[in-house]
Amino acid sequence: MLNLLNLSTNGNMILAKLPEAYAIFDPIVDVMPVIPVFFLLLAFVWQAAVSFR
């Protein structure tokens, strides 16, 4: 546990590497965690388009 706290305070992240067969999908996998944020922003844009009814 102490080692995990030391890594988090040091600013290093533990990232898993994809197998070599899936290395071409690495850029897509890097963007995937941001996709739910886009849906949240889409809800606000949609409501702004309909004047927040």
UniProtKB/TrEMBL annotation:
User: Looking at the record's lineage, which domain of life comes first?
Assistant: Eukaryota
Q: Where in the cell is it found?
A: Membrane; Plastid, Chloroplast thylakoid membrane
Gene Ontology cellular-component terms listed: chloroplast thylakoid membrane; photosystem II reaction center
| BP GO annotations | photosynthesis
Record keyword Chloroplast present? yes
As for membrane topology, the entry says:
Single-pass membrane protein
Q: Tell me which InterPro entries the record gives.
A: PSII_PsbK, PSII_PsbK_sf
Note the Pfam families from the entry.
Answer: PsbK
Q: Where are the transmembrane segments?
A: 34-52
Supply the alphabetized keyword list.
Answer: Chloroplast, Membrane, Photosynthesis, Photosystem II, Plastid, Reaction center, Thylakoid, Transmembrane, Transmembrane helix
Propeptide residues, chain positions = 1-16
What sections of the sequence does the record tag as coiled-coil?
none
Q: Does the keyword NADP apply?
A: no
Q: What does this protein do?
A: One of the components of the core complex of photosystem II (PSII). PSII is a light-driven water:plastoquinone oxidoreductase that uses light energy to abstract electrons from H(2)O, generating O(2) and a proton gradient subsequently used for ATP formation. It consists of a core antenna complex that captures photons, and an electron transfer chain that converts photonic excitation into a charge separation.
> Would you identify the family this protein belongs to, as annotated?
Belongs to the PsbK family.
Assembly with partners or alone:
PSII is composed of 1 copy each of membrane proteins PsbA, PsbB, PsbC, PsbD, PsbE, PsbF, PsbH, PsbI, PsbJ, PsbK, PsbL, PsbM, PsbT, PsbX, PsbY, PsbZ, Psb30/Ycf12, at least 3 peripheral proteins of the oxygen-evolving complex and a large number of cofactors. It forms dimeric complexes.
Name of the protein described by the UniProt record: Photosystem II reaction center protein K
What's the source species for this entry?
Answer: Netrium digitus
Q: Could you read off the lineage of the organism from its UniProt record?
A: Eukaryota, Viridiplantae, Streptophyta, Zygnematophyceae, Zygnematophycidae
